[in-house]
């Protein structure tokens, strides 16, 4: 286990401190600080930036050759951290405890240490880690966003406004689908620094907002939750396959919800995310695609096709078929293939 001390809190100083520990130079591009991990330690990059509203962003994209432990132990009140593990898992522990919390891939954690106790993060060796942490300086954020905080009614408000670090807080749950590709646009406008900086700030604000909303959703029962989680996308894919394989079955939202164990809100969100359509539109399109194939078969007349794809009304079938393909089923049936 390789251990590195980080005796800093502003993210620019975190990067500078890590660069010194790694024995490498750091780069500064208008307040965004970078370091490249040296080959004897691993490969990849760590980057960080602070914004005037008290939010900050640090991104780890790295493979370490040895199990690696980063100890953030400066004797001051530490920021609240919104930690997202997008690839690989990490462990977190509070510096005043000897309890490790595993933050698995595609999990979102909120951690706030007590008083001046810091945080310890461990990375397993030979694994690609993509970890994002939104850092909230409680005091600065409280001053800058005082008006907005006044009307906020959530347990999370107590954590973020705990400027003296009176209480320790730890919460983890599955990440919503928003987080699946959050690093995709991280380098947009790289050549236009003002746009790049504003893009980073906008992304950080959006991550903050998404976590605030998701935290309240986490507190709900499974049936009440509306945010689709990344791990649940597999069940949406399975729903899509089920529809294709059971085209003449009961493909109502209610039945698909029962089969997948996802409530209707999550199902609709998932179909919009994966297929850019609603569940009912996906069912209709799947039935029409199958109908088009069957109409090419001389053994099927139009009425037989209607039954085969799970519809009851021939007139309705003709209407939606013509709308999609610009030709009626009977006309399509007479086309030579």
From TrEMBL:
Highest taxon of source: Bacteria
Ranges where the HTH araC/xylS-type domain occurs: 237-335
Which Gene Ontology terms cover its molecular function? DNA-binding transcription factor activity; sequence-specific DNA binding
**Keywords assigned:** DNA-binding, Transcription, Transcription regulation
Q: Known PANTHER family for this protein?
A: REGULATORY PROTEIN PCHR
Q: Can you say what this protein is called?
A: AraC family transcriptional regulator
Q: Which organism is it from?
A: Kaistella carnis
């Amino acid at each position: 286990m390789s251990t590195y001390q980080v005796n800093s809190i502003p993210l620019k100083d975190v990067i500078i401190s890590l660069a010194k520990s790694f024995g490498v130079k750091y780069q500064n591009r208008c307040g965004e600080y970078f370091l490249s991990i040296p080959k004897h330690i691993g490969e990849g990059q760590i980057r960080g930036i602070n914004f005037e509203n008290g939010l900050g962003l640090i991104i780890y994209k790295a493979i370490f050759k040895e199990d690696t432990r980063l100890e953030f132990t400066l004797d001051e009140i530490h920021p609240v951290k919104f930690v997202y593990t997008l690839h690989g898992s990490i462990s977190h522990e509070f510096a005043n405890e000897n309890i490790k919390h595993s933050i698995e891939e595609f999990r979102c954690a909120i951690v706030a240490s007590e008083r001046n106790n810091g945080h310890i993060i461990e990375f397993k060796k030979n694994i690609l880690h993509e970890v994002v942490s939104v850092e909230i300086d409680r005091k600065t954020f409280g001053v800058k966003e005082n008006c907005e905080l006044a009307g906020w009614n959530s347990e999370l408000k107590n954590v973020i406004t705990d400027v003296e670090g009176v209480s320790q807080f730890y919460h983890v749950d599955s990440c919503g689908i928003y987080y699946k590709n959050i690093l995709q646009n991280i380098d947009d406008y790289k050549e236009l620094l003002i746009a790049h900086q504003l893009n980073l700030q906008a992304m950080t604000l959006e991550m903050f907002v998404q976590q605030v909303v998701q935290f309240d959703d986490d507190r709900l029962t499974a049936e009440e939750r509306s945010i689709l989680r990344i791990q649940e996308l597999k069940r949406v894919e399975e729903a899509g396959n089920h529809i294709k394989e059971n085209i003449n079955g009961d493909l109502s939202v209610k039945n698909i919800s029962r089969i997948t164990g996802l409530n209707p809100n999550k199902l609709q969100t998932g179909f919009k995310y994966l297929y850019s359509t609603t569940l009912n539109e996906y069912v209709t399109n799947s039935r029409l695609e199958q109908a088009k194939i069957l109409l090419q078969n001389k053994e099927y007349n139009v009425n037989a096709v209607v039954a085969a794809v799970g519809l009851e009304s021939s007139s309705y079938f003709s209407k939606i078929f013509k709308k999609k393909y610009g030709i009626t089923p009977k006309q399509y049936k007479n086309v030579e293939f």
